[in-house]
Amino acid sequence: MALYLEHFGLNEPPFRITPHTDFFFEGAERGPTLEALAYAVLHDEGIVKVSGEVGSGKTMLCRMLMERLPAEVATIYLATPSFARDEILQAIADDLDLKLSERRTVALRELQEHLITLYGAGRRVVILIDEAHVMPEDTLEQVRLLSNLESSRHKLLQIVLFGQPELDATLAKSSLRQLRDRITHSFRMRPLPVAEVVKYLDFRMRAAGYRGPQVFSPAAARQIARASDGLTRRINILADKALLAAYSEGSHAINERHVKAAIADSEFAAAPARRALRPAVLIAIAAALGIAVGAGVQWLLSSPQAPLVPVQAAAPKPAAVAAPSPEADREQLDTELELQEAAEGIAAADAEAPPTPLLTPSQRRRLQAYSTAGQKLLTERLDATRELLDRAPDDGYAIELFVTENPQPARMERFLLRARDMVPLSEVFLIPMGGSAGQRMRVIYGAFDNAQQAQEAERRLPPKYQQAFHTSPRSFGELRKQM
Fold it and tell me: Which of 477, 475, 466 is nearest to 402 (CA)?
């Protein structure tokens, strides 16, 4: 039991690193991602992939999915993906209370017959594979074969792979092309931006029973966001240690000093003893040294000089090494510390400087001129669109779904309500556009590094979208110009 529970009026620890579904944070598109994932599992017939960095919340999402699926869905959770090819079949059979033959081909047929029986009884089976990035290639090939199990009309198994970004690299191998082609939906767990970290910290505190004013100051929350890289597991570790630091002082508010103590006590966040200096820092230090050297040269040039007298070379004598005085040591240390502090100040200012927005004032006014009439999803997606267009580089790409000349808010809201059952709503963006014919609305999907990635994603769009819309990749430079 955490020491600070009574101090902060908590019922339970708010920042445990083990997944606890009561603490699922729906901000930063986590909620819409869960909804889209559940829909894909229940209505799609391909393999679903969820990737993200260590500690980004994949296992929490997996647990939430297990809770969200209806009772007629049997979930098989495989937390040890290092199974050999035959072992994964046995693990699935064990969960289904099924005895399989030792011969692989016979075992697959037996499993298929059992799944057909379950399907006929109105049951569906979903396999959730955690840490799939460490799965051997032979086992991944077995996963592909499992995805082929079907009745005369329907797939009998739905498979979801959860893994770190290394999973994407593994699936990119030519030897796994057939498996890669069976992946119909891909979700990415992205780090929390700074604004969402502030909300996340407050949400977790209140989910644990806290009822007072906001505990983490905005500066402390920003500091946690930077040190954690927005990864929820790291946020939890730092927040827990910051609460303990405040408790030890008898404080009920978390400030930057408490977070600094937490960072110093965390290996992933603590700064190394000798950090690499940024170019701006090196310039500052060089300038300081240059001033000192220049002053010395000026002193030498302005001093009276004695005439140069030739001297006979003498045999070299051992040089006497003078012991540095304590005062000189202290002065040198003070100078180094001052330079280090200046360097850190420049680096911090450089890190905190926000990126230059890419939208022009007129483009920003175009976005703001469109009235959402209070429609909730429409307002959220327009805010997300503004953030995307402010930071997406000109050579990045999105997929244009369609352009409509009837962008009435209620109509666009209805489209978004339907869209969240088809695709992750976090990937849908709406761009109001002007023109001689009046206001129009361009609807785009996703944000990709290049045209090739956009084209690959375009082929993975739901069949209904591919039939209804004339989709095409568009660069963000082009999208901004045409606003």
Answer: 466
Helix/strand/coil percent split, the chain, to 5: 50, 15, 35
Cα–Cα distance, 341 to 339 (Å, whole number): 5
Strand runs labelled E in 156-253: 157-163, 183-189
- Phi/psi at 313 (5° precision): -65, 135
Model-wide pTM > 0.85 = no
Q: What's the CA gap between 226 and 414, in Å, rounded?
A: 38
> 363 — phi, psi (to 5°)?
-65, -40
Max Cα distance, the chain (Å): 110
Beta bridge partner(s), residue 284:
none
Condensed to tens digits (0 to 9), the pLDDT of residues 395-444 reads 999 999 999 988 999 999 999 988 887 888 889 999 998 755 568 899 99
Q: What is the DSSP letter of 431?
A: E
CA angle 31, 35, 38 (to 5 degrees): 135
CA neighbours closer than 13 Å in the CB half-sphere of residue 441: 21
- What amino acid occupies position 15? F
3-state secondary structure of 49: strand
CB under 8 Å to 341, separation ≥6 — which residues? none
User: Is the CB of residue 213 less than 8 Å from the CB of residue 238?
Assistant: no
Locate all alpha helices (DSSP H) within 208-255, ordered by sequence. 218-228, 232-249
Going by C-alpha positions, the residue among 325, 201, 343 that lies closest to residue 278 is 343
Residues 282 and 276: their CA atoms lie apart, in Å, by: 10
